[in-house]
Design a protein that fits this description.
- The structure holds 2 protein chains of 2 kinds.
- Chain A is α/β, with parallel strands linked by helices.
- Chain A folds into 2 domains: about 230 residues, 3-Layer(aba) Sandwich (Rossmann fold), CATH 3.40.50; about 110 residues, Rossmann fold (3-Layer(aba) Sandwich).
- In chain A, about 40% of the residues lie in helices and about 20% in strands.
- Chain A has a 7-stranded mixed β-sheet, sandwiched between helices.
- In chain A, helix 3 runs parallel beside helix 4.
- Chain A is globular.
- Chain A starts with a strand and ends with a helix.
- By secondary structure, chain B is α/β, with parallel strands linked by helices.
- Chain B has one domain: Thiamin diphosphate (ThDP)-binding fold, Pyr/PP domains (Rossmann fold, 3-Layer(aba) Sandwich), CATH 3.40.50.
- Chain B contains 10 helices and 9 strands.
- The longest helix of chain B is centred in the C-terminal third of the chain and has 19 residues.
- The radius of gyration of chain B is 17 Å and the shape is globular.
- Classes of the chains: A alpha/beta, B alpha/beta.
- At the A-B interface, helix 3, helix 4 and strand 9 of A face strand 1, strand 2, helix 2 and helix 4 of B.
Amino acid sequence: MAKVLMNGNSAIGEAAIRAGCQCYFGYPITPQNELTEYMATHLSRKKGCTFIQAESEISAINMVYGASLAGVRAMTSSSSPGISLKQEGISYLAACELPAVIVNMTRGGPGLGSISAAQSDYFQATRGGGHGDYRTIVLAPSSVQELADLTYKAFDLSDKYRVPLVILGDGMLGQMIEPVEFSYEAPKEPIIRNNALRGAKGRTSRIVKTFTSNPATVEEINWSLFRRYQLIKQEEVVWDTFMVEDAQLIVVAFGIAARIAKGAIKSARIEGMKVGMLRPITLWPFPAEKVREVANRTNYFLVFEMNMGQMIEDVQLALEGAGEVSFYGRTGGVIPTPNEVLRVISRLYYQKGLK
Amino acid sequence: MKKIYTRPKSLKRTPFHYCPGCGHSITHKIMTELIDEMNLQDKTIGIPPPGCSVFAYNYFDIDMAESAHGRGAAVATGLKRAYPEAIVFTYQGDGDLAAIGTAETIHASNRGENITAIFINNAVYGMTGGQMAPTTLLSQKTTTTPYGRDDKIEGYPIKMSEILALVKGSAYIERVAVNSPANIIKAKKAIRKAFQVQIDCLGFSMVEILSPCPTNWKMSPVESWKWIDEVMVKEFPLGVIKDITGKKDAG
């Protein structure tokens, strides 16, 4: 298929349909409405598929839970305040080992905040977000093309490990229009997972639940999840690097912030500064090993995020004191320019006496 | 010799954990009898949210999944839309359906989702130890209305069946009780009809069941049966509240 121009939100929708998503449940919230609208237009008329504009984000995530019980690929999307509401359902999905794709086109917070792009839901996404001891896989795309590509991957990973997965985008990625190519062909037959609840026909009846009066059983569920999370950490870490080979200073940034940082790094290179970038694509599992590997070459790290400093904790944890970590962030929906980041890079570069 | 009575096939051989005199056991029994009689065991999926009956999956020998508190109607919606061949019911208490889950219930009903809600109204939060429910009667004492429910402070007992009858997407709503053999037979009939409405794809169906909770009402089982007849039905009158099937037949 040739490239088409599309906004990020719609690109997720198209990719999800091609990935075999059969059910989408949403609730309007800016800046992700184009996705809900795309599904209303394109998924609702597809045979055997369902689109519902739910009465709340809580209902939407619980509809996803219901559809996932039936073994089909299901998703929901929202933006920060709505994602807070979905946490209850995400915790239940994690507990019951049900796959689901949850898209968060993050906006400025806390509270109602602003409708502009932010990355301030990093903690919520990478630490589980709801109650209980669980994690979700978190993918952080940084272009419209990557939104599409990671959406296919999201459904596959979520199904493979039977864990809910968060695509952590932001308002800017959702709104921006870029060329995108859809490489994935929609499956001819709907994908129905094994062990679904579809009536006890020819088998014993099945129960999906976590609640028990025996705490040791719940502890065992936690151990089972933990073992799976260890496996995910081993197998599924993804990152990207940019000009790190000779870099004296490494910028660590994800999502749209990485896009902005890239512009700044290109300018810094023209001015002779040896700057590179490490871009985590899976925020959980975090590419900690890669951060340590890069630290063999330089001691200086600049974490740049569109929040007050959240991923910086993962970078510091990964380094265990092996590097010097600075931070620059804008938040609340303020979108910094590459020039602004370049100024921060230059100041740091010369302050540290790097050559 | 002819066998005239047996345990329902859809009822597991697990002893009920419910208190003596509780309405859940009776309701489980008639529901599993119906599932057998209507030959639905291999296609019925139950959604019991938190409450005393969250353990319903230990007794119904059918596919079941727990849901978050109050979200039964949303979970059932997702499940039924993803797999329309299933017969999907929620089994919810009054706290679940009439307080925390009102939005999910009203909107599922309004969309005319082809699901069935079995709504156990015992006017009290049973599992958490007898707190006020949205359906607690005026002047009724609970652990959080120790001086009796006062409408000026706690408002009025909410009537979900009447509210849902006003919603266009609901097809069949009946209020029954499980406090006497005659009423139990009527309750079973109502649930049969609700399942039939779902099979016929007519829309949302609900059976509200006035159900004794002797433990939290601090009564004997016999007293609690009487209390339903003498007090509870005055606030929650029994009978069919909405039924579009008759109209369809006539039309």
